[in-house]
Design brief:
Layout (H helix, E strand, L loop, with lengths): L1 H11 L1 H6 L3 E5 L11 H18 L5 E9 L2 E8 L31 H11 L3 E5 L6 E8 L7
Parallel strand pairs: 1-2
Antiparallel strand pairs: 2-3, 3-5, 4-5
Helix pairs in contact: 1-3, 3-4
């Protein structure tokens, strides 16, 4: 159940997110969203997205995680109200060892989002990123549902 996995992940990362001064919201839905997956690997993938938010957001920003379904797929969205990602950086954020200009002074290897993409792809899923002009980043992970339904 993805909602249970995300709930456990948020509990695991509470100290990290709190020390970054972030507010956390979760909308885990009311029905279980079950996928065939290696829970440990999905925990790692979603954990990388939360760690990224903790590194790039400012104190007082909000990180929101939602779990739902649509188009016969499970959908997990990790969004934040941080500074966002420069438009010219968006096509490269999942490239291994790539670091954008907007990471001003933030340490890291540039591998975390590449790992997210690889882990999600190994489960038959996709990950997309958007950064609206108003700021923030939205990472959307889509995974196949076992029965292909879920609208």
């Amino acid at each position: 159940d993805l909602a249970g996995l995300v709930r456990a992940l948020l509990a695991d990362r509470e100290a990290e997110l709190r020390s970054a001064g972030l507010r956390v919201r979760a909308d885990l839905g009311t029905r279980p969203v079950t996928v065939r997956a290696d829970a440990g690997r999905l925990h790692q993938a979603f954990g990388n997205l939360l760690s990224n938010a903790a590194r790039y957001c400012r104190p007082g920003d909000t990180v929101e995680v939602t779990v739902g379904t649509g188009g016969g797929r499970a959908v997990v969205e990790v969004s934040d109200t941080g500074p966002g990602i420069a438009a010219e950086d968006l096509p490269h954020v999942f490239d291994r060892f790539w670091r954008g200009k907007s990471g001003n002074g933030v340490s890291g290897s540039g591998i975390g989002l590449a790992v997210v993409r690889e882990l999600v792809a190994a489960h038959g899923g996709t990950v997309r990123v958007a950064s609206p002009p108003s700021g923030g980043a939205v990472f959307t992970v889509s995974l196949p549902l076992p029965d292909g339904r879920g609208d």
